[in-house]
Amino acid sequence: MLVLRPAYVPIETIVVFFVGGTLAYFHILDAIKHSAFLSAPALPPAYARLSPRSPLLQVSPADWHLARAHSPSAALDLVSLVLPPSDPALAARFVAHLTTALPSSTGHTYHSLCFRPSNASCFAHHRFNSLSLALADVDWLPALAPDALLFSDPSGVEFRVAGPHVSIESMRTPTWVAYAACTLVERFWLLAKKADSLDILLVLAGYILMHITFFLLIARSRRLGSNFWLPLAILSTGILALLLALPLAMALRIPIDPVSLTEALPFLVCTIGFDKPLRFARAVFTHPHVIVSPVPGASLKPAPRIVTESFAKVYPPIIRDYVLEIAVLLAGAYSGVRGLSQVCALAAIVLAVDCLLLCTFLAAVLAIMIEVCLFLYFPCKTLNPC
C-alpha cells in the first residue's frame, strides 16, 4: 500500500516533498524569468542578408554570421523598433509617420537614407507590434534618442521613444519580480478593456467560487475539531501539487501563459477541490482509537496503524473519483479547443499529483497530527485539542 511507508516515516516524507517543492518553485521562477511573457516583444527579422534571388532575405543568426564571414557586404544590421501594442490603428499611424515624415538631424527622411538593394523600395518589415528597418546611413538614428518626441497625431496622442530595453536577466530578484507583477497587471488591464462583460463576469464568478471553496474547507475542518492545522495541511497539499505539476507540464510541452493561468486558477481550485482530502481526514479523525479512550490495560494503537486502517476504508471511492475526473479532463485536453485543452491538461496533471500527495504527503501529516493528539493530549475524548 502506498500510504504505508509515509505513515511510518512521516518526517522523512514531508522533508522529501518540501525539498521537491522548493526545487520546483525555483524551476518555475527561472522559467518565468526567461519566458517570452517577460521578454521584449519578438522583432523579426533580427538579421538579413543579400541574396541573388531575393534583394533582402530574412535569415537566422547562424546564417547571418556565416554570410558575414564569407562576404561582409552581404550581411546587414537592421534597426528593430517596438510599436505601440495597444491599438493597431496607432501602430499603423506610427509606421506611416516613421517611414515617410520623421526627419533626421539634417532634415532627411528614412526614404532618403534607407537601404535600397537592386533598385528596390526601402526595406521596412512590419509585423504585429514590431518594425524592422534597414539603413544605409546612420544619420537618421539621432532622431530616435531616448525620450525624444517623434510626433503628435491630430487626436493628441504623443509618440515618444521609451529607450533601450533592459534585459530581464540583468535585473536583481526584487526588480524583476516587480517588473513581472507590473507586466501581469498591464496585460490584465489590456485584456479587460477588450474583453466582453460576460467574460469578466465569468472570471469574477470563478474567483468568488474559489473563495467559497476555501470557506467550506475551513468550516468542515472545524467540524472535525481542527481550526488551523488540518486546513493548513490540505492547502499545503494543493499548493505543493500545483508546484510539482507545473514543471511536469513544461516538460510535456504544454503551453502555459501566465495570464491564462491566472484566469483559470479559480476553476482549477474548484475542479480539484478539497473533498477527497477531507474524506481521508474524516476517516482518520473518527477512528475509534482517536475519539474514544481505549479500555484500561489495553495497548494504544500507534498513529501509523490508525492512518493506514482509515485509508483502507475510504481509498476505493477516493481513487475512483480521481480516475474519473482525470479521464474527463484528458478528454477535454484532446478536444482541440484552444485554451480549454491547455487548462484541462494542466488540471489533469495537478489531479494526478494531488492523488499521489494524498497517499504520501497528507498521510504523513495526518500521522504526525494523530501522534500529537494521542501522546501529548491523551486522553482526548473529543477532537478539540487536536
Characterization of this structure:
- The protein is α+β, with helices and mostly antiparallel strands and 386 residues long.
- The protein has two domains: 4-33 and 195-375, Multidrug efflux transporter AcrB transmembrane fold (Up-down Bundle), CATH 1.20.1640.10; 47-160, no CATH class.
- It has 14 helices and seven strands.
- Helix 2 crosses helix 8, helix 7 crosses helix 9 (258-272) and helix 12 (303-333) packs antiparallel against helix 14 (361-375).
Number of strands: 7
Spell the H/E element sequence. Answer: HHEEHEHHEEEEHHHHHHHHH
Residues in helices, as a percent range: 55-70%
Overall CATH class of the largest domain: Mainly Alpha
Q: Which structural class best describes the helix and strand composition?
A: alpha+beta
Cα-atom radius of gyration: 30 Å
Q: Count of helices?
A: 14
Question: What general form does the structure show?
Answer: elongated
Looking at how many chains there are and whether they match, the oligomeric state comes to single chain
Brief synopsis:
This protein has 14 helices and seven strands. With about 375 residues, the protein is α+β, with helices and mostly antiparallel strands.
